[in-house]
Write a structure and sequence with these properties.
two-stranded antiparallel sheet; 8-stranded mixed beta sheet; alpha/beta; about 30% helix; globular; about 220 residues
């Protein structure tokens, strides 16, 4: 039923994954997967950025799945520093594919973006990727995202212009080396969590889906 929210314990490689499925329109053209930020720093499916990304995607009538990474909330297993979590993402994609047989749009925030991009870029079932607050500089360590060189699906990189984990110069460098098609947007007056600018973040996602995904 359109608008229904189902609580699901979907099978994962390290045990069951606590999940929320927003059911879309009966004739939905896409399903979507939204991944949360770092679980060791409070990231869960209830994060505000994740919730607002989900709202932007469900406004199109798309199905939307959020899940807690292993060891988070009621999800089984233990945190694996982004390695096993890539397999969690793949399990969620498998679930959406089996349930709906639709092309999938990925969206991830922070840790969820970094981890999810690595899992979904090679997957032909995923036809577009939204990376929110892409972590490119954390505790002095730079992340290069070299795998994006070969990621030919449409990509939206969206960060706050005051995000300390996505400094403009470093994110622009990652963006420049990524394969086309791609779009980079800095939300004005926003930090890592898009504080006070969540409607603007939603609007950018809406514009990109309209201009890139629905026109393809």
């Amino acid at each position: 039923m359109r608008g229904e929210i189902k609580t699901i314990m979907l099978p994962g490689p390290a045990g069951r994954l606590e999940s929320l499925l927003n059911v879309g329109e009966e004739d939905a053209k896409y399903a979507s997967l939204i991944c949360h930020p770092h679980p060791l720093h409070g990231g869960t499916i209830h994060n505000k950025v994740v919730y607002n990304a989900m709202k932007a995607l469900t406004a199109f009538g798309f199905h939307a799945l959020r899940f807690n990474f292993r060891g988070t909330g009621l999800s089984e297993g233990v945190h694996d520093e982004g390695r096993g979590e890539q397999d969690d993402v793949r399990a969620a994609i498998d679930y959406l594919d089996k349930e709906f047989h639709l092309p999938i749009i990925f969206a991830g925030f922070s840790f969820g973006a970094s981890t999810g991009l690595r899992a979904t870029c090679p997957d032909s079932r995923v036809v577009g990727a939204i990376s929110l607050g892409t972590p490119v500089l954390v505790d002095g360590r730079a992340y290069t995202y070299k795998f994006l060189h070969n990621c030919n699906k449409p990509k939206l990189l969206l960060s706050g212009d005051a995000d300390p984990y996505s400094p403009r110069h470093e994110l622009e460098s990652v963006f420049a080396s990524a394969a086309d098609p791609k779009k980079l947007v800095f939300t004005p007056n926003a930090g890592h969590f898009f504080e006070g600018q969540l409607p603007a973040m939603q609007a950018e996602i809406t514009t990109w889906v309209n201009e890139v995904i629905l026109q393809s």
